[in-house]
């Protein structure tokens, strides 16, 4: 009675995965991953923290105190990232998995 209960019938049916088990990505395209990079830790390491409301990426570029330097180090990082990708200096590998699940109400 105290367990977490969800009325699954009120939700749309989930899409079945195309496979069960694991799938390995041996050499995933880094260019496809580029737009998912979280740049906040990058700016934090450089101690570039904008004042609200310019704290996050890309708003930090609008910050009066650190915006110009943030844009400079970001552009440098983009250039280096382009070199690393085009010269295949880095390789992205990953693994995902889907398994059957079952829950019993007790």
Notable features of this structure?
single chain, about 110 residues, alpha+beta, two-stranded antiparallel sheet, 2 strands, flat
Largest sheet data: 2 strands, antiparallel
Quickly count the helices.
3
Order of helices and strands: EHHHE
Give the integer mean of the pLDDT values. Answer: 90
Q: Give the C-alpha Rg.
A: 21 Å
Instruction: Report strand order across the widest sheet.
Output: 1-2
Write up what this structure looks like.
There is one protein chain. The protein is α+β, with helices and mostly antiparallel strands and 106 residues long. 28% of the residues lie in helices and 14% in strands. It has helices at 30-33, 40-45, 67-86, and strands spanning 21-28, 92-98. A two-stranded antiparallel sheet has the order 1-2. The protein is flat, with a radius of gyration of 21 Å. The N and C termini lie close together (8 Å).
How are the SSEs ordered, and which strands pair?
Elements: E1 21-28, H1 30-33, H2 40-45, H3 67-86, E2 92-98
Antiparallel strand pairs: 1-2
